[in-house]
Amino acid sequence: MPKSMLPFLMFQGDGSAALDFYLSVFPDAQVEQLDRHTEEDGPPVGMIKMARVTIAGQTVMLTDSPIKHAFTFTPSTSLFVECESEEEVRRLSDTLKQDGAEMMPVGSYGFSRLFAWVADRFGVSWQINFT
């Protein structure tokens, strides 16, 4: 039986910037674990080896790969954020999409009162919802 299942985000050189960004966007975010590469590891010193951040009660793991891959994030996998107000949907959408992309602008699409789907500047996809 599995012990747990967590979202895992692999960045390619911008993991520290992404972590700092998420901590600024979500006031309740807490870093639970942050291990960085050292001189002995080989990758650039200071890159995130492994981190766990908790946002709205959900723990997300992330790493910063020193290896450049031919792939990155896809919008078909996203982090779904349930908001407590329409204002929160608008704030998160506006903040997260800066230098990123907007797949579905803030609006009422029939399945919720207000919804938005954006990708942040790191390529992580966010669905933001208020029911």
Q: Count of DSSP E strands?
A: 8
Q: Which percent band covers the strand fraction?
A: 35-45%
Unreliable runs, pLDDT <50, ≥5 residues? none
- Report the sheet with the most strands, covering strand number, pairing sense and barrel closure: 4 strands, mixed
Dominant shape: elongated
Alpha carbon gyration radius: 16 Å
Name the helix and strand elements from N-terminus to C-terminus, one letter apiece: EHEEEEHEEE
Q: Which class of secondary structure composition applies to the elements? A: alpha/beta
Textual characterization of the structure:
The chain has 2 helices and 8 strands. The chain is an alpha/beta fold. A 4-stranded mixed sheet has the order 1-4-3-2, covered by helices on one side. A 4-stranded mixed sheet has the order 5-8-7-6, covered by helices on one side. The mean pLDDT is 96.
Summarize the structure.
By secondary structure, this protein is of the alpha/beta class.
Mind sketching the topology for me?
Blueprint: E1 8-11, H1 15-25, E2 30-36, E3 48-55, E4 58-64, E5 78-82, H2 86-96, E6 101-107, E7 114-119, E8 125-130
Parallel strand pairs: 1-4, 5-8
Antiparallel strand pairs: 2-3, 3-4, 6-7, 7-8
Offer a few descriptive terms.
four-stranded mixed β-sheet; 2 helices; alpha/beta; 38% strand; 131 residues
